[in-house]
Amino acid sequence: MSRATAWLESAGIPAVAIVCRGFTVPARLVAGAEGLPDMRLVEYPPPNIAVQNPRQIYEYATRLLDEVIGALTRPAYARKMEATRRSRAEHLEVVFKGDLEEVNELFRKNVWSDGLPIMPPTRQAVEKMLRFTGRSPDEVIGLLRPKRLQATVWKIAVNGVMAGCRPEYMPVLIALAEAIAEPRFGIEHAGSTVGWTPLIILNGPIAKQLGFHSGQGLLRPQHQANITVSRFLRLLMVNVAGYRLGETDMATFGRNYYPVLAEAEDESPWPPFSVDRGFARGANVLTVQSADTASHSFLTEGGADNQLRLIAIEIARELGGSMLVPMEHFGGEVSPVLGLTPLVAGIIAGGGYSKSDVKRYLFEHALIPAKQIDERLDRHQLGWNLEQSVEAGKLPARFAESDDPERRVPVLRKPEELQIVVCGSPTRNRSFIAAQFGLQGLNVSKEIRIPGDA
Predict the structure, then answer these.
(1) Cα–Cα distance for residue pair 183/143, rounded to 1 Å
(2) How far apart are CA 287 and CA 273, in angstroms?
(3) What torsion do the CA atoms of 230, 234, 237, 238 make, to the nearest 10 degrees?
């Protein structure tokens, strides 16, 4: 709402933002970051619009009409947005001196941390990080919304130190900053009430070289490389993007960061995930995207005689449930991650099935009744159903082959949307799904540049 209002004002069209109570502060903060510090705003009184029926919404909107007209009669101050710049001298400024406890107290007080103790980013520690990149400390990797601060190589090193990263992780950190700075990723949506968390997938020889774990319990916070790199991303979102709970981060629940999901390439029967993303086999590649706050694992049954059928039926059942919410983002992309252990992937591949075969099978069998989607759309008052989405070109024709509410429709638009990563315990028959939230956190892949590479 704030971004739309700022965009209209920048085009010379007077606009008023209407926000539900509890969102006034974040609305003004976002508007200010978009160049509209004095946005015209009217507060929608409780209860929240999401729990009201159309009649109630109409009645409440009628009461607000005078406020909207009044707001339109006063000017809204706008300013040209420019990225905040800091000189090299400011980078080297000493902001505090004290012992470890005092430093951490200062960082917590200023919300420069994630609440956990940090490693002090001393000048010496930051310089060690910089030795593992040939890029200038002042080089701007990108601008991070909502605060629009510059993610420089220096700031990346600082937050890497704070997160507990080893200096040799620096090329990975830079690639990660490059990825989330891409407009496609849409970091400006990371503070939505959905509360999604970025998921980082790592491929290539660098994973083993730097000690990233890809086996049993890889999503546990025990392995330094996996957890500190993910923590770095959260700190970058706090200190550069400017996310603050209750202000710019309005997650209803949210969750802590996922450790980096490094693929077990040596144990996989298929080409690595990075090849699916268009990179050469053996390239060091990092992919980041949004992930559900409640990804889950489940048992997959099956043996040599019924490999794909029994395994895929169970996966399809789970996929159908986990993808129901993201399916509301009609017209965009949805890219759920399906994690298969080397055992499960090996059983499927042993039957002669490729990764593409698995995607096609799941596309055909991960089906839910059309009425489940239409009923949800109706409850959310989004103003369309499956048939209308097909007519508008947002969905393939398959979703409206009949008007039978019991007809089965896919939870994916096409097989290629499903992303398969082989990882986890090599002796267990479990799989997991992390749903992805469409236009919020679209997947972005970056090749990791190692200093000295041609």
Answers:
(1) 10
(2) 9
(3) -150
